[in-house]
Design a protein that fits this description.
This protein has 287 residues and is of the alpha/beta class. It is 52% helix and 18% strand. An eight-stranded mixed beta barrel has the order 1-2-4-5-6-7-8-9, surrounded by four helices. Helix 3 runs parallel beside helix 5. It is globular and about 50 Å long. The structure holds ligand C2E and magnesium ion (3 copies). It comes from Geothermobacter hydrogeniphilus. This is GGDEF domain-containing protein.
Length: 287
């Protein structure tokens, strides 16, 4: 009966609540010790030149190898890290780890690999972020040109004057600055012009609809055109299909990132990609 069903649904709902709060408690206690226990991992996803298929750089994407819950994506723990203030130590760990890895690739004869690190809005507000970053580079013996920082449009627009100042200092060091998830926030062209940025990354929510949705296709096309007129490099994220790739190449998007070429992968796998390049079947098929 409906009543029995209702009762059943209620039970299921209740159990889900218990599960969520229990999971949250496990995560909260765990995250405090995750750094000491060395449970964070960095996966790397290649960015690819849209016309040649060459790997141009990598993006570092954080994972948490949780002892009970398995490999967790950032969505499961970044906001928790921000609430607890642990984002500062985690952010510093990511920067130092990435610099260390870039050094290792250079020592392996793989040249100067450039890696993009995502910055939380909290980090951008942090005292001495610039000092921390230059120290990490110096300690690893890595040149600032090897580091790229990705900040979202929304984070930058929360405090544009402050962001402009910090981003300018970072860029003066030689670090590349990217605006991530572009198109989902609301930055004006006049603001964009003031930022010392190098790259716009078109948000995957537009990219993934270019074949189906005329509005998203028009927005994507407009972002590419606008970015180019401002002399910025344009990267499309979340590219999964040949059709999306074809559209982006047709509109002269510079770089492509997405499962079509590679998922984010562990360090051994990406080292192999750096050594041998990607399997370019998909790019050739689109030519
Ligand atoms: P993001 O920087 O915009 O990264 C892109 C996200 O899209 C990544 O999710 C990536 O794995 C995923 N992705 C890449 N290609 C494809 C594709 O073809 N299709 C689909 N559906 N997804 C694709 P991920 O790794 O779960 O990271 C989510 C977000 O977490 C990142 O978004 C970034 O904002 C944040 N994040 C990651 N690492 C860090 C970090 O070290 N520090 C901070 N503060 N945030 C981080
Ligand atoms: Mg990013
Ligand atoms: Mg993004
Ligand atoms: Mg994102």
């Amino acid at each position: 009966s409906a009543k029995a069903q209702g009762r059943n649904n209620f039970k299921v709902y209740n159990r889900a609540m218990d599960f969520d709060s229990e999971r949250r408690m496990i995560l909260e206690t765990g995250i405090r010790r995750a750094l000491e226990r060395d449970e964070f991992r960095i996966h790397y996803q290649p960015k690819v030149d849209a016309s040649t298929g060459e790997v141009t750089s990598l993006e570092a994407l954080l994972r948490w190898q949780h002892p009970d819950l398995g490999l967790l994506p950032p969505a499961d723990f970044i906001s928790l890290a921000e609430e607890t203030g642990l984002i500062f130590s985690i952010g510093e760990w990511v920067l130092r780890q990435v610099c260390h890895q870039v050094r290792e690739w250079a020592d392996l004869g793989l040249g100067d690999v450039r890696v993009a690190v995502n910055l939380s809005g909290y980090q951008l507000q942090q005292q001495n972020l610039v000092g921390q970053i230059s120290q990490a580079l110096e300690d690893a013996g890595v040149s600032p040109e090897c580091l790229e920082l990705e900040v979202t449009e929304t984070v930058v627009m929360q405090n544009p004057d402050f962001a402009v100042a910090i981003l300018r200092q970072l860029k003066e060091l030689g670090i590349c600055i990217s605006i991530d998830d572009f198109g989902t926030g609301y930055s004006s062209l006049s603001h964009l012009r003031r930022f010392s940025i190098n790259t716009l990354k078109i948000d995957k929510s537009f990219v993934q609809e270019v074949e189906r949705n005329a509005t998203d296709a028009a927005i994507t096309q407009a972002i590419i055109a606008m970015g180019k007129s401002l002399d910025l490099k344009i990267v499309a994220e979340g590219v999964e299909t040949e059709g999306q790739l074809e559209f982006l190449r047709g509109h002269d998007c510079h770089e492509i990132q997405g499962y079509l070429f590679s998922q984010p992968v562990a360090v051994d796998k990406v080292t192999e990609i750096l050594r041998n390049g990607l399997d370019l079947k998909s790019l050739q098929a689109a030519t």
